[in-house]
Amino acid sequence: MTSRWTTAVLDIDLPGGWAVARGPQGFLFDDNGALFPREWLKRQDLPILAEHGIGHLDGEPVYLLELKSVSEVPGCNWKGLRAFMLDGDHTLYKVLGYAAQIGTWAREHRFCGNCGQPMTQVVRERAMYCEPCDLRSYPRISPSMIVLITRGDEVLLARSPRFVPGVYSTLAGFAEPGESAEDCLVREVREEVQIEVKNIQYIGSQCWPFPHSMMLGFHAEYAGGEIVPQEDEIEDAQWFNVHALPPLPASRSIARYLIDLYVARRLGLAEPVLPG
Fold it and tell me: From residue 45, how far is each of 8, 74, 252 by CA, in Å?
């Protein structure tokens, strides 16, 4: 089956296609969604910082208009990427998630990190270029691990102060230079809750465009120690029985998938599908 959405580097000098607009408030949308006829959108007097050709949806070209500042368009509103993730259209979320990553990367690489001179977009390549330094910068992907720790019918879940009130999730953290994903897992678990784990098993991965992570999902078993939450990082951490779980993360997140997968296997239920 052919995917409805495929990424590509498109020539912004060609006419036509669809476009999405991203500004400080999120993505522009109306009653028909967040995709607009590109030529119409460019006539709306938007404060465009840059334009990027990002791919094809159902064979039609899609572009991103990255905006400098807040703007109003009659009949339209703005919504953050997380809100789109919770909506029903997963394909649109994938388009917007990719657009957000490209927009963030290009915005943060308008100037060379070596000499400070303006960078330019490379034609037919997803790169920003500094001619004086002959330096190319490509979209950033930050590897991180996320792990569900289990102890029989219990799972270890924690709360960050940044979470929605009441919601508990798995432990996660970014890999440091020189670390494997497994090294990162062991270190992060020790730092965040001060316990030891064993039997680490890789489960799957998910792109997480908040702003540019690649989440590597694992399952690990409890090996010893008492939970001691990391100050300023973990608000609370507890063992929860699979029959009495707290409010959990959004269903499209890999965190929720790791939890649902273990519960399904423990209770003999149908296994969920990893979100794409």
Answer: 26, 11, 35
Is residue 106 within 8 Å of 67, Cβ to Cβ? no
Pair type for strands 18-23 and 60-67: parallel
| Domain boundary assignment for the chain | 5-108, 142-267
Looking at this protein, which amino acid is placed at residue 10? Answer: L
Q: How many other β-carbons are positioned within 10 Å of the β-carbon of residue 272?
A: 15
Give CA–CA dist 120/203, Å, rounded: 39
Examine the pLDDT at 1 and tell me if it is beyond 70: no
H or E stretch including 264? helix 254-267
Residue 158, pLDDT > 70, answer: yes
Report d(CA 20, CA 28) in Å as an integer: 7
Query: Does 112 appear as a known binding residue?
Result: yes
For the domain 142-267, what is the CATH superfamily, name and number?
A: Nucleoside Triphosphate Pyrophosphohydrolase (3.90.79.10)
C-alpha 116/C-alpha 119 separation (Å) is 9
Determine whether the annotation assigns residue 212 to a binding site. yes
Q: What pLDDT, on the 0 to 100 scale, is given for residue 80?
A: 96
Domains 5-108 and 142-267 equal at CATH topology level: yes
Residue 233 labeled ligand binder: yes
Reported pTM? 0.90
Q: State how far the Cα of 68 lies from the Cα of 83, in Å rounded to an integer.
A: 22
272 annotated as ligand-binding:
no
Cis peptide before 15 (omega within 30 of 0): no
For the domain made up of 5-108, the CATH class stated in words is: alpha beta
Residue 211 is assigned to a ligand binding site = yes
Identify the residue with better confidence: 252 or 149: 149
pLDDT digits over 108-123, tens only? 999 999 999 999 999 9
Q: Is 213 annotated as a binding residue?
A: yes
